[in-house]
Amino acid sequence: MDGATNSHSDAKRQMLRHTVATLAYRGGKAVGSAPENFATFRAGETTRTPAEILAHISDLLDWALCVARGEYVYQESTLLPWEEEVARFFAALEKFDSYLASEAPLLYPAEKIFQGPIADALTHVGQITMLRRMGGAPVRGESYFKAEIMVGRVGAEQSTTRVEFD
Predict the structure, then answer these.
(1) Structural domain count of the chain
(2) How confident is the model over 4-44, as pLDDT tens digits?
(3) How many degrees, rounded to 5, is the angle at CA 27 between CA 154 and CA 36?
(4) In a domain, 1, yes or no
(5) The pTM is what?
(6) For position 122, which CATH number holds?
(7) pLDDT tens-digit profile of 109-126?
(8) Which residues span the domain enclosing 140?
(9) What percent of the chain shows pLDDT beyond 70?
């Protein structure tokens, strides 16, 4: 157990929350203003579509919440239409962040929660960003170091202040 009462685990919990906010920011940028046909774009015969990847990311976030609660349960959801998948992504982020913001203990180590579902979700956001470029609707590059990412800001509404480049 990664108890929520000592300052070391509080720092780890805050880092997880910052990572979740980063995932919201980068993920929101990857899925925002996507062309109508983007959800079903396929880079190859056996690759996942952006909608399938986004559904998987939400499943990973649901898994992260389960693990935080001490339940090692992963479930695949049924694919939804793109806009509903986008909404589910932000809802899953909000649920997980709310748990992290609470006094409830992390029943698996923060490092395990990061290295499993959260790191995997970050990887998949990168895949969606790459597919945007391949599909002819690239996301502008940005200095994410300078991005206004705030703990707790995990919804679709993100900072509009950008340090983008071509």
Answers:
(1) 1
(2) 445 667 999 999 999 999 999 999 999 999 998 999 999 99
(3) 120
(4) no
(5) 0.93
(6) 1.20.120.450
(7) 999 999 999 999 999 999
(8) 7-165
(9) 95
